[in-house]
Specification:
By secondary structure, the chain is an alpha/beta fold. It has 11 helices and 8 strands. Helix 7 links the parallel strand 4 and strand 5. The radius of gyration is 19 Å and the shape is elongated. It starts with 6 loop residues before the first strand and ends with a helix. About 40% of the residues are buried. It comes from Rissa tridactyla. Belongs to the HAD-like hydrolase superfamily. Pfam families: Hydrolase.
Amino acid sequence: AMLRLRFLTWDVKDTLLRLQRPVGESYAAEARAHGIRVQPEALTRSFREAYGAQSRLFPNYGQGRGLSSQQWWVDVVKQTFRLSGVHEEGVITLMAENLYHDFCSAGNWEVLPGAGETLSQCCQRGFRMGVVSNFDNRLEKILSQCNLRHHFEFVLTSEETGFAKPDGRIFQKALRLGGVPPEQVAHVGDDYTRDYRAARAMGMHGFLLRAAGQSAEPEVPPEHVLPTLSHLLTLIEK
């Protein structure tokens, strides 16, 4: 292969795993279990608002601000219900803690098409692999439950490292753990700024997974774009 790649780093959310259903549907189901009717669409809108506000106030799950990521998420969920017109604080707290734990399990996640096969084929071809993800510390457990954890030498989260992509320091840590120079590593992800551009700024190679109908980033050459994960090995081995 022209690319002398030895190591691949992977984003997770919307690259290897995605939510099985919109957040609002999971939240509405939890509310129904407590006899509360809320529209899933309203909850999804409220979630976006609550998540955005919390991310601006306390970036990277409240790292360095004395918040645990669990508290960070519980606050987001509680605020989501309040914004949707639910105000019984005791029930809100109970629902938030239930949902925090629900999202630890495989039940809310599904493996993207081609992900398992692609990771297995990369291992068979001798590529070493790790995860670099803007995620909280539930990620190891989620990957294990979705039967993907064994492919990776390490799982680096923004919570654990204290740096979130596109900050280059999370990639630096991955390069140190892998013990490989950046030019022998490619990062695979679905976000132009956090994944593709950030990895390239570190001297790594980048592949951008682009869902159908997503607008093209003009700076990404076609040989770096993955219409599906199954295209990866073809592009690497060109």
